[in-house]
Structure formats: structure tokens, C-alpha cells
Design a protein that fits this description.
The protein is mainly alpha-helical and about 160 residues long. Helices cover about 55% and strands about 10% of the residues. The chain is built from six helices and two strands, in the order H-H-H-E-E-H-H-H.
């Protein structure tokens, strides 16, 4: 017997101070550790200044394009059918697309060392903008998995 689905209440996120963008604020929240939001803001804003310096373009536009380039349109979810688990491809919608990209970006940044965090964030943003790097690779892997398991797409409605 399936459990009753309930709608999850979405928190309203205020835009950030400098760029007046909800997307940047969401990224700051993902970068934040131990509730240190000012430190996370400083890191992200320094990274954006570095992006502007290296690309000679507006950092917010580069960031938005990088998010769009690395956002997945498909993902696989595990479904149990008749005692077997299948990786079933699903379309990714709205906020989840952005959430996945931001999380992948933060994971890629935290997986590297040897440079300041703001420098690593700037590198990852520029790489995603140029459709290279770990974040874009993660999107490609997600699409490859969905393509490989396309035969189980008919199980998506269960």
C-alpha cells in the first residue's frame, strides 16, 4: 500500500545582497558550512570577482550560463519491481535541476585542494561555462546512465 504523497512546503529564499539574485543566494547557502554565512558570502563574492577578471564578462551572467550548461535534464532513480531493483530514468524539473547543479559544483570544489576555495569555485564556474570540468562531467554521466537504462522507462509510472 503506497504512502500518501504530501506537498512539501517550499522556503522562500531572499535574494543576496550584492547581485540581488536568488540563484546566487542558493549557491551561498550550499557553500555555507556550520552556519557561517558571512564567510560563505565572502568566498562566493571573491570567486565572482575572479570570474569577472578572467572572463571579462559579468559574473552573474557567466554563473547563470554555467548553471544552465551543467543542469541535467534526466536522472535515474531506483525502483523496486517484483523483487528486482531497476534504475529508471526520470526527467528532472525546475528547482531540482538547479539544486543538483549547485550540489555537484560544491562537491567538485570540496573534492579539490591546493588553492583557496574562492579560486576553486571560480575555476568550476568557468569550466561549467565552457562545458568542461567535474560538474559538466557529472551531468554527462547522469545522461549516460539514463540512456543506458532507457529500456526501463516504462516503469516510471509506478
Amino acid at each position: 500500500m503506497p504512502r500518501k504523497k504530501t506537498k512539501v512546503l517550499q522556503r522562500h529564499i531572499q535574494p543576496d545582497r550584492k547581485y540581488d539574485s536568488v540563484l546566487v543566494q542558493r549557491f551561498i547557502n550550499k557553500v555555507m558550512q556550520d552556519g557561517k554565512k558571512l564567510k560563505a558570502e565572502r568566498i562566493v563574492y571573491d570567486a565572482f570577482e575572479e570570474v569577472e577578471r578572467r572572463t571579462n564578462q559579468q559574473a552573474l551572467e557567466v554563473f547563470q550560463q554555467a548553471i544552465e550548461n551543467a543542469a541535467p535534464s534526466l536522472e535515474v532513480k531506483s525502483r523496486r519491481v517484483g523483487g528486482a531493483n531497476y534504475q529508471v530514468p526520470f526527467e528532472v524539473h525546475g528547482n531540482r535541476r538547479t539544486h543538483l547543479v549547485l550540489m555537484w559544483m560544491v562537491q567538485a570544489v570540496r573534492g579539490k585542494s591546493g588553492q583557496p576555495t574562492s579560486q576553486r569555485i571560480a575555476d568550476e564556474i568557468i569550466n561549467a561555462y565552457n562545458e568542461t570540468g567535474d560538474t559538466f562531467k557529472k551531468k554527462e554521466d547522469s545522461h549516460r546512465m539514463a540512456e543506458a537504462n532507457r529500456a526501463f522507462a516504462h516503469l516510471a509510472r509506478f
